[in-house]
Design brief:
Four copies of one chain form a homotetramer. Chain A has helices at about 5-15, 15-20, 55-70, and strands at about 25-30, 35-40, 80-85, 95-105, 110-120, 125-134. By secondary structure, chain A is of the alpha+beta class. The first copy, chain A, has a single domain, classed as Hotdog Thioesterase (Thiol Ester Dehydrase, Chain A, Roll). A six-stranded antiparallel β-sheet of chain A has the order 1-2-4-5-6-3. In chain A, a hairpin with a 3-residue loop joins β4 and β5 (about 110-120). The longest helix of chain A has 19 residues, at about 55-70. The two termini of chain A are about 20 Å apart. The interface between C and D is large, with 36 and 36 residues.
Chain lengths: ~130, ~130, ~130, ~130
């Protein structure tokens, strides 16, 4: 079995249309997950001028999906079945960084936890995401 | 107390930067919530070519936020504290419609349920979203 | 295929050890789910003297599990994979009633929503529960 | 401000009626949370003969509640507002151990993550629980 190089993983993830619209960047690959990020820009704000909750949810979803692509070498199709995110603090500027940890890789279901931090390392949200292997 | 007209509500919601990027449209106001939608386009797709889970999460978040803006006449600032969404089916084309039902309007916390359907009325996701009044 | 009678369903559900400890009773079978309940007693209280959140979570879990037992005639083993509950109001006495609605019955995953009310019909919690068929 | 001794914390937590019914034991206090556990017994089983999901949900809820009692010295009343738990593996016997980590202690809302393991240290569930300070 051949694994994806970090460059291949990055290309696959960053060219997914919605990830591209948001501006998702793959930063690192870890033993149990990945670190991805996006940079705040005006299009990602809500009425209060801070990062829209949907952007953080998108990053949480992507951080687990990309970790699974890395784990399976991109050879297993999968789809999100549930996502839960708790918002702890608002992000007004800078980066939003999502670090996923795969907690369970089953025959049908895979579960990951995602810690989302700002550029200063402050925890701003935490998520649990489930994917079903197809 | 003056309520927002549907036109004012629509203008406020649709001009929020991230809602605009996604293409959120406010369709109807109900006694207990709102109906909003977005139309599928290539930028909203994931690797599998279907609607990215982050778009559905964004619509769920927005459907409760806009319902609260309608309920409070836009005079109460609030922020999402938790969002949970279960994906039931994929959306390949057409519309994604989100109908929110406010279940609790408390002094601090407000909770809404959101049923997400495609253009044929098929239930494709269900969400529960909590907002904290600031 | 033979369906369970309501008596068979009741016997199976109410004799499950933990359901028995809590005092779960099966009240009605609906086209899309079931109604179950338990009666408040001192053992089910928390420090504040109201119903412990774990009891409501247990009822939510059971309401979907029993609905699936009813749907499949008790012939499909299944296990809870995720449960999310939002507490809207405290219950100090009387009944806790859980009405499940099966939203999706898939080949692998089944999802149900549960509305939990007190004896006066007040919504006190809402849950979404996923089961995996084994 | 006087903190609770571990003995006081244990007494308060273990005498809460529902915790007592389940058999919750407080094992350790950490800088950011607590470790609690319960021992499997027949009354806690479901139809499949393994630990009922409601027991794990109860432990998750309790692990965050007891961590907050420890943090605030038992002087702040609080109530669970949402709980989400993902079940990763079944527990057939032995202990269920819940280790909470307080992620956010706000003026209104407190959020904790709970890792649930069996007696061999295998991760069997993960939860996120929110409490509102009253």
């Amino acid at each position: 079995m051949r694994y994806l190089t970090i460059r291949e993983l990055r290309t696959a993830a960053e060219n997914m249309p919605f990830n591209k619209l948001i501006g998702v960047r793959v930063k690192r690959r870890h033993a149990d997950g990945v670190t991805i990020e996006c940079v705040m820009r005006d299009e990602l704000r809500n009425t209060a001028g801070v990062l829209h909750g949907g952007v953080a949810a998108t990053l949480a979803d992507a951080a687990v999906g990309i970790a699974l692509a890395s784990h399976f070498g991109g050879r297993r199709a999968c789809t999100t079945t549930d996502l839960k995110i708790n918002y702890l603090s608002a992000v007004a500027q800078g980066k939003l960084i999502a670090r996923s940890h795969l907690l369970r890789i089953g025959k049908k279901l895979c579960v990951g936890r995602v810690d989302l931090t700002d550029g200063q390392g402050k925890l701003i949200a935490v998520a649990i995401v489930t994917y079903m292997l197809l």
